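An instance noted here:
***
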Amino acid sequence: MTMQQLSDAELARQPAAYWTGVAYEALIAFTRARHAEHGFTQPQFWLLRNLSANDLLPQGGGMTVGELRQAMSSYLRAEDDLDAEAEVLLERGWLVRDDEGRLRITEAGEGARVTLAQHAPAVRARIHTGIDDADYVTTLKVLRQMIRNTGGGSAW
């Protein structure tokens, strides 16, 4: 039986943990494949974002790979190797490393971050095809409530 053949009552009995896991894996795989088509990885984009004064590091400055790993701990995957990803960005000239081991974004890196971010709307649009904003908002509200119901993060 396919999911399209299930009644609403049958869908209501489906395990949320299973389906959120399936959705997570599918969304990550899709997003990472789109990034790869444009010659970068999701962790590389996160590094640029976390080092940009125009994005997630408004005070500017730099961070060590360890500090970046901590900053990204809620969304890094086990297979993400920030040391290797940072090396690629250093080779491209998008990052520099200072004498204290802190990574800093370069002007070229900031330009790359801006260019790479321009792909996000198309990725979002493809993921959201056939889903209106009201349904999406309802889904997020339900997931946030499930997180609260199970003692998950207080930020939700």
The first helix runs from residue 8 to 12. The chain has a mean pLDDT of 94.
